[in-house]
Amino acid sequence: MEAIAVRNMATVDRTLSSKDAAAFGVGRGPFGVSYLHSISFWPGDKRKRSLGGGTSLPTISSVSASGRTFPNLLTPRGRWIRKSSTTIASAPAEEVAVAAEPLTKQDLVNFLSSGCKPKQKWRIGTEHEKFGFELNSLKPMKYEQIAQLLEGIAERFNWTRVMEGDYIIGLQQNGQSISLEPGGQFELSGAPLETLHQTCAEVNSHLYQVKAVAEEMGLGFLGIGFQPKWPINAIPIMPKGRYKIMRKYMPKVGSLGLDMMFRTCTVQVNLDFSSEEDMVKKFRVGLALQPIATAVFANSPFIEGKPNGYLSYRSQIWIDVDKDRTGILPFVFDDNFGFERYVEYALDVPMYFVYRNKRYVDCTGMSFRDFMVGKLPMLPGDLPTINDWENHLTTLFPEVRLKRFLEMRGADGGPWRRLCALPAFWVGLLYDEESLEAVLKMTSDWTPAEHADLRNNVPKMGLKAPFQGGLLKHVAEDVLKLAKEGLQRRGYKEAGFLNEIASVVETGVTPAEILLDLYRGSWEGSVDPVFEGLLY
Question: Contact 271/124 with Cβ under 8 angstroms?
């Protein structure tokens, strides 16, 4: 029986009509990709919920999307949601599932813990952003050009369009999604893949497709962490409702939030965990070593045509974006840290928005705790769904972010070879038990002050940042060795992906320092050559 799906056949554990299956719509995949994989019912649940048309079925205990399980989800108030094979509406998951009853804190904890999976099911997800620009003028792409580019990719390579109202704002295909950041930065959120070879092939395929269409339009893409030439008022604004709310709120809580939104690009890696204990270990290692990743991949030394005084200005910007939702999270190193402690933290981070009736409701500064008991002033009596919680988690921006997986968020955007090196770095450290335990032991005596000093010093000093009587470079050498050994033990012949950063660690000279040398030398004080030098 065929049920609705964007790309996949909806498979259910008991027989449903197409109409009933359609009611469950599209679940949120593990790396922001929305598509339905399966629906599971809880046989022991005696409660009933109407699906409309007189149909009554047991409460859904979980919805699984691409191997991830979503607890306590229900149908959307009996409405049937259908998606075509070529165009889907962009809406947060609130429109797709509604909580069966008021959420408890344990529901929020269960949502995070539902990400636990056995090692054989661990996957690698890579996300990277890049700046689009006009090849002849170097000016940022306008939205109209971006829309044409997206349409061209969809037509030529059979991607599904993602719409917000009348605007095309992204594409989806086979677990991958292309989305737009606030200033038109082009982001690929990759599918969860098993090996680094698959991940790198995905990146290469994406860049080939984008270039094939973009070059015909006179457009190119730049791999760098911060917009090197243009002021913020020259950056286009994307027609996305959530960004309008963020744009209004950011100046109230920090001086650099708009720069973060409109002028930065990053590459990040999303990785799995097997248990709460495993999550805690990986979270701690990720936070401790994030400054090393920031230094090794530092690639944002320019602003408005001149050096900005930093090697990773993108990283420096995050220090003054919004202290409520950014930073190192010292409590992760406490003995009592686990899923529940992260939930407590997230509940106290002020909200941005709630999505209701096809619009974003501004809830900036409001408390999710109040939302849990129906006390949001702008939505009196409205209670959150588990998908409201999921979306709230995406508005937290620490150096490592927990969802149903862990996101390593410390690296600048860069050229394509470095896009393959970052997941290699983290996979070698976190997916090999020997390397993970070795790094835990190495970092176990690092103090909160040392963590903070690294976070504050690395954006300016890179691998030359002082640490425990030496330089961070010396720690990075040991860490890179462990990453390489971890990859070798995985048995997929992946260690070669680290070659791109081996010379950085060996010399202590970051990519940003190489760019600065070129600026002061053969580029003769101009940043324009970077658009050619770091062109994808």
Answer: yes
DSSP 8-state assignment for residue 330: G
C-alpha Rg value of the chain to the nearest Å: 23
pLDDT, tens digit, for every residue of 455-476?
Answer: 999 999 999 999 999 999 999 9
Q: Which of 80-89, 166-175, 181-190, 212-221 comes out lowest in average pLDDT?
A: 80-89
Q: How confident is the model at residue 101 (pLDDT cuts 50, 70, 90)?
A: confident
pLDDT of 15 higher than 90:
no
pLDDT at 92: 61
Closest CA to 234 of 355, 131, 319: 131
Single-letter amino acid code for the residue at 371: F
For 332, phi then psi, to 5°, come to -65, -25
Q: Are 56 and 49 in contact (CB under 8 A)?
A: yes
Contact (Cβ atoms closer than 8 angstroms) between residue 180 and residue 146: yes
What average pLDDT does range 136-148 have in this prediction? 98
User: CA–CA separation, 185 vs 226, rounded Å?
Assistant: 11
Neighbours of 447 (CB within 10 A): 10
Paired tokens of 68: 């991830």
Total Cβ atoms within 10 A of residue 499:
13
Asked whether the CA dihedral 347, 118, 127, 153 is positive or negative, the reply is negative
Higher-confidence residue of 62 and 473: namely: 473
Contact of 217 with 145, CB cutoff 8 Å: yes
Alpha helix positions (H), 415-498: 416-430, 433-443, 448-461, 472-490
Q: What is the pTM of this model?
A: 0.85
Token couple for 420? 């393959």
Residue 434: burial class (beta carbons within 10 Å; 0-12, 13-18, 19+): exposed
Alpha-carbon distance of 516 to 535, in angstroms, equals 17
Q: Which residues of 515-535 are buried (b: 16+ CB within 10 A; e: fewer)?
A: bbebbeeebeeebeebbeebe
For Cα atoms 17, 22, 25, give the angle at the middle one, nearest 5 degrees: 150
